[in-house]
Amino acid sequence: MKIGPPGSFWNNRLHQGLFGAYLLLWIGLAISPVNRHDWLLENLLTFLTVALLIATYRTFPFSDLSYVLITIFMALHAIGAHYTYEQVPLGFWLKDALELDRNHFDRIVHFAFGLLLAYPIRELFVRTAHVRGYWTYIIPVVILLAFSGFFEIIESWVAQIVSPELGDAYLGTQGDIWDAQKDMTAAFCGAVLSMGLTAVWSARRRGRAEAI
């Protein structure tokens, strides 16, 4: 995994490509979303996340793999924001194909939240806090579960304060009273799977290094 030196964005084709591809996707999906007010609410955290990644790029550039994972998650969220999560076409296709009772695209994105962002969080703690051993796999899972719960709380506040009439569309509950808990479970499972795969990959890499 290549880690670019500070200020290397203009020399890193991968990072430029990821940023450019996401920007084009975001602009395209910003045109005529299903519900403009819901789209704005969904993008509040997007604006903050992108601003944070840009502001910290010179002082703490993530690895190429982390940026790829972050970009994929941001793209999934952009799609959900455009359609509103309960109206994403892919979710309707899965609903019909698997005979589900609802559009589960939101659940897919929550699972992706854990699956795709656990690794960057692990990298952050390993490189800044010098976490070692099994804690490098436990802490990301705990952090992702905490973030998942925190976001559910923030979403409920934003929905009530900013635009109460969009509460159901913004929260994407689709009438499920256990929606928040199921979303958190999906994120938790994604994070556990991510760290499990990372542990296996790390063990295999150490095994190859010791064999040389």
What profile does the largest beta sheet have?
A: none
The counted number of beta strands is 0
* Residue runs with pLDDT of under 50 for 5 or more positions: none
Helix run count: 9
Q: What string, H for helix and E for strand, traces the elements in order? A: HHHHHHHHH
Nearest-integer average pLDDT: 88
Structural class: mainly alpha
What would the principal axes of the Cα set say about the shape? globular
Helix percent reads over 70%
Structure characterization notes:
This protein has helices at residues 13-30, 36-42, 44-55, 64-83, 89-98, 105-128, 135-161, 167-171, 179-211. With 212 residues, the protein is mainly α. The model has no long low-confidence stretch (mean pLDDT 88).
Overview features:
212 residues
Question: What's the quick description here?
Answer:
This protein is mainly α.
Outline the fold blueprint.
Elements: H1 13-30, H2 36-42, H3 44-55, H4 64-83, H5 89-98, H6 105-128, H7 135-161, H8 167-171, H9 179-211
Helix pairs in contact: 1-4, 2-4, 4-6, 6-7, 6-9, 7-9
